[in-house]
Amino acid sequence: MDEFIWRALAGGLGVALIAGPFGCFIVWRRMAYFGDTLAHSALLGVTLGYLLDLDLNLGIVATSLAVAVLLVTAGRSQTLGTDTLLGIVSHSALALGIVLTTFVPDLRVDLMSFLFGDILAVTRTDLLWIWGGGALAGLALLALWRPLLALTVHAELAEVEGVPVTQVRIAFMLLLAIAVSLALKVVGIVLVTSLLIIPAAAARRLAGSPEQMALAGAALGCVAVAGGLGASLIWDTPTGPSVVVTASLLFLLSRLAPARLSLSR
Amino acid sequence: MPDRERLVEGRGLVFRPGGQAVLDGIDITVDRGEIVSLIGPNGAGKTSLVRLVLGLARPDAGSVWRRDGLVVGYVPQRLVIDPVLPLTARRFLGLGGQAPASLRVEVLAEVGVAHLLDRPVQRISGGEFQRLLLARALLRRPDLLVLDEPVQGVDVTGQAEIYEMIARIRERRGCAVLLVSHDLHLVMAATDRVVCINRHLCCAGHPETVSRHPEYVALFGPGLADKLAHYAHRHDHVHGAGGEVLPIGGDAAPAGTEARHDHG
């Protein structure tokens, strides 16, 4: 087979592996909209990257990190509901990103590939970003695992027990920003949250512990990537959406699984 | 309480989140080994006061002092674990920190939920979950247990059992307990001192004194106060008051101190 397919597979699997554990925390902490906001702001990163002649991956990661910091600080004032705040940032960033593409002729051509992903165009440099960044984010998440889980269950109890709640929360958001910017490569800005939450949600009924759910989420994500890639090669469907459709089918299957399969419900 | 070691002390606490005063000039202290009950009607600011004492929020005026190296075991008022998070009781306990397995066995037996260890937390009933929370707090070997409405969602028999258990824990471990309740007559038997608040400090002292204090009666009604006096009385046999209702004076607290040593 052609090399670009193996590159696509390697990139997709790398993203799926990291999406599993991060997706679980998004599901547990009810942060799906937060993930969306990070993703939508990435287009702004792409545009700024082009305009400032930076590496696009760098542009995306930098913008996502900036938005994460903005959300953490803005979230402290309680005058607006969190969902309202996220909605404002999310859609403003997406709209501004699209508006700005007008000034970058190259980008106007590529807009669809940014919105819906273009995994078949993954380069060796992209692979380096995905696997390098993914390993970094994954290891950092591992280090944060127990305190993050503790504050997910009950933040104040965790704080009394000595967890530095604010720091852990910020660290997680920054790591999530990295994970989201990597996952963009596969499914694009519009669908990135689905790659994070659908495999994780599908893993729920197969898991009896948080770690099992994270691993099962990663495994199901890999199946979705391989399945979506295969489908797009056979039927010439767009790859990103095919991956998401495969993930959704896996989710439906997991719901059909007999209850006794699930260890804890 | 003269010779006891002070664990926490809040003085003149004012708390105004968003500009509205939830607490206004509250004093509260807890000494080693004593059980202090914090009571007040709904919305009185009990949980806010607990959060100040724990350092989870900062007072707008006044100060909170905590003993250096104070280890606190906390049982929050509401802890609901989303069914989307697969978590057994064992893992839940582990989230509080690493504890040797022998200690875990001992603590779970102490609160009577050793059989739950491998059950998902979402399938544990209200009363058993409260015991599990207590176990997580005890695993830290706390100097001070802070229990915010520990009998929520527990049926009446279960409630009495939990309060008895708290009294036993104190006897055995000598840790102090700060107990939040909206219901004095249930906590009365195990309490050394009561602090009654309703945004401001209503009254504080020996449970019986408080139950007859005009501000307390105004909040909870005289009928209940009578019941309380009667209930408390049954536990006062240790200092031989006979069948009479004790005269109420400002010096009732030392009597309570004596009674404590004769328990259990």
Structural class of chain A: mainly alpha
**Mean pLDDT, all residues of chain B:** 80
Structural Rg of chain B: 18 Å
Question: Would you identify the regions of chain A where 5 or more consecutive residues have pLDDT less than 50?
Answer: 260-265
Q: Beta-strand percentage of chain A?
A: under 5%
Radius of gyration of chain A: 18 Å
Can you tell me the residue ranges of chain B where pLDDT is under 50 for at least 5 consecutive residues? 229-264
Shape type of chain A: globular
- Strand/helix succession of chain A: HHHHHHHHHH
CATH architecture grouping of the domain at 6-71 and 182-261 in chain B = 3-Layer(aba) Sandwich
CATH class category label of chain A: Mainly Alpha
* Overall pLDDT score of chain A: 88
Total strands of chain B:
9
Task: Give a verbal description of the structure.
The complex is a heterodimer of chains A (265) and B (264). Chain A is mainly alpha-helical and 265 residues long. Helix content of chain A is 82%, strand content 0%. Chain A has helices spanning 3-28, 32-51, 56-74, 82-101, 105-116, 124-153, 155-160, 165-203, 210-235, 239-256. Chain B starts with 5 loop residues before the first strand and ends with a helix. Chain B has a six-stranded mixed beta sheet, with helices on both faces. In chain B, strands 2-1-4 form a three-stranded antiparallel beta sheet, with helices on one face. Chain B has 264 residues and is α/β, with parallel strands linked by helices. At the A-B interface, helix 6, helix 7 and helix 9 of A face helix 2 of B.
